[in-house]
């Protein structure tokens, strides 16, 4: 899964500062960016599990040791017992699923998670297959109220994080071609207070 760097601080700030002993599930782990950021920017040693449908991602990640477990999974169904993980991340994955499967995945995250679920999804951001990965196409779009209706707290941020000089060029290009400003939804749901 591709990873937008604008999400980094927003998502990391939602995680507890001390993660020692927590079981963290990264759904759609892709190249392992979330695993790397969590390991390098948080205090403690969590047990991290990465799942992805695209086997080449998992093969690249395996020798890096970022995750204790890597599993090839076709979501929305997750192969985990009820309340078996503390924190679940599903960042930039829902848009790759049909809407019905996205809702099923959100239900699965709630089923397997004990404490916290963090999800993100872009708005106004069409995408075809990239990197030779057929699963990278965006096939659904989510709105903030869809997460709010499920009890998530939601934040929407503009995805145009450009240097000052390029912001004007980007605004002119978007105005000329009538392109929307891509935005990212970051939603989280606390199921239980982490210790």
Largest beta-sheet characterization? 7 strands, mixed
User: What's the architecture in CATH terms?
Assistant: 3-Layer(aba) Sandwich
Residue share in β-strands: 15-25%
Which class do the helix and strand fractions yield?
Answer: alpha/beta
**How many structurally independent domains?**
1
Order of the strands making up the biggest sheet: 3-2-1-4-5-7-6
What is the highest CATH level, the class?
Alpha Beta
Radius of gyration: 17 Å
For this entry, what is the oligomeric state of its chains? Answer: single chain
Number of strands: 7
Distance between the termini: 31 Å
**Mean of residue pLDDT values:** 85
CATH superfamily annotation: Vaccinia Virus protein VP39
CATH topology: Rossmann fold
Number of helices: 6
Question: Helix content range of the residues, please?
Answer: 25-40%
Q: Which residues form runs of ≥5 with pLDDT under 50?
A: none
Dominant shape: globular
Give the topology string: H per helix, E per strand. HEHEHEEHEHEHE
